[in-house]
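Pilot study result, target chain (514 residues):
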Amino acid sequence: MAKDDNNLLKKIIAHAKEYGFIFPSSEIYDGLAATYDYGQNGVELKNNIRQYWWKAMVQLHENIVGIDAAIFMHPTTWKASGHVDAFNDPLIDNKDSKKRYRADVLLEDHIAKLEEKIAKEVAKAAKRFGDDFDEEQFVSTNQRVLGYREKIDYIHNKMKEALSTGNLQVLRDLIIELEIACPVSGSRNWTDVRQFNLMFATELGSVADEANIIYLRPETAQGIFVNFLNVQKTGRMKLPFGIAQVGKAFRNEIVARQFIFRMREFEQMEMQYFVKPGEELQFYEEWKAKRYRWHQVLGLGEENYRFHDHINLAHYANAAADIEFKFPMGFKELEGIHSRTDFDLAAHEKYSGKKLQFFDPQENRSYIPYVIETSIGLDRMFLAILSAAYREETLPGGSQRVVLRIPPALAPLQAAVLPLVKKDGLPEKARQIMAGLKYDFNVQYDEKDAIGRRYRRQDAIGTPYCITIDHQTLEDDTVTIRERDSMAQQRVPVAEVRATLARHTDLTGLLRQL
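Predicted structure:
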């Protein structure tokens, strides 16, 4: 991570706390590592992101429905899914710093540094050659770039070999070969790589001797799979159809870091799309395009997204890709799209002894559907929006402001109602206007401090519009609406305020672009 990017993440963390987005959990007791609480503005932004996903996934698709499965599930569920035996991270310790790391993440970070070197070579060449620069030709012929690319491919292949065979010694040997040092101690004194299961276990029952070991779910997908037949039959669903769910998941991450990017308690937004075997790769490509479009219409910057094909496919998948976002710490996974074949339903059929098949009336036979999965972390999406929205700006005249350019439809508040002064009947008029808006919008009333300071406060929490009530309002029933990003102001009749806000802040505007 570059120094400037590291500073940006620190600024975002500080801003999120100062303005009521995210607080360290249990802070009065010195906190709990890798757990966070969403404050008054954070919970509104999070709810809006969740609504945007849910409406885009369920409301806009006739053949996708939603469920809300329990967090606790029968323990055999996790045996069938493979989590009991195979849900592990390869961990390595540095003997000098006593810090523990994921071995694969250390290698991925090393690859990211090589990719940064390639990007610097391309930038230098583009500056040197100007309009005559051919990037495609440059990266395919420049010896230094080819050397970096060869090294990246070598690391990828060794990682794939190690992860697919479970040969952890290969991972350690690769870390030693590449001379990867501990970020804290700077030493290369590493232990062997070991596997660590990520599930939280607990006991069900009031008497310990009679208790059953159960798990906090590490993902929400299995709740969908075990309800496949319930939904299919009660909803009279025909292939292809999908089941969507938003909910908490829990993973005992040893290396939980980078703010809310990797936490032990997090929220997932997942959809499992059931299709006829043989048609899964067609739908896989369709959902890759649909999910990418969902991100693009938010306007966070096309340059901040890219697809990344998995190096090592999971045992259940025949295709998988990530939509990566350029966080302050570099490009990281934001959403996964996976073709899971029939692994999950077949495994649950085997372990439960219950038939989990779809009867196809056209073919007059039953079969286990294949599944396309889309899975996005709600907390990661929250961080992506904060990262893209945070701006420090110098205004005409030299003054400064910090502004969150959050997409208006997702902003915690759609508008702030501000009487110019706290007298002359302006607060009463402002309250009257607010009373008419609060049924349709999340609106805040603020009369404290000078109007300029109140504008800055709303900029800092990302409020897209400020409605100012002044003495002219009492004369002609008009108000000033100030737009956050441009700071432009226009005079609008009070009767048109609601329509103006709806035009720019309603989720429908985003959904119509999908």
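One observation from the pilot: The chain has three domains: 1-79+198-295+322-394, 88-197, 399-511. A full batch analysis is planned for the follow-on phase.
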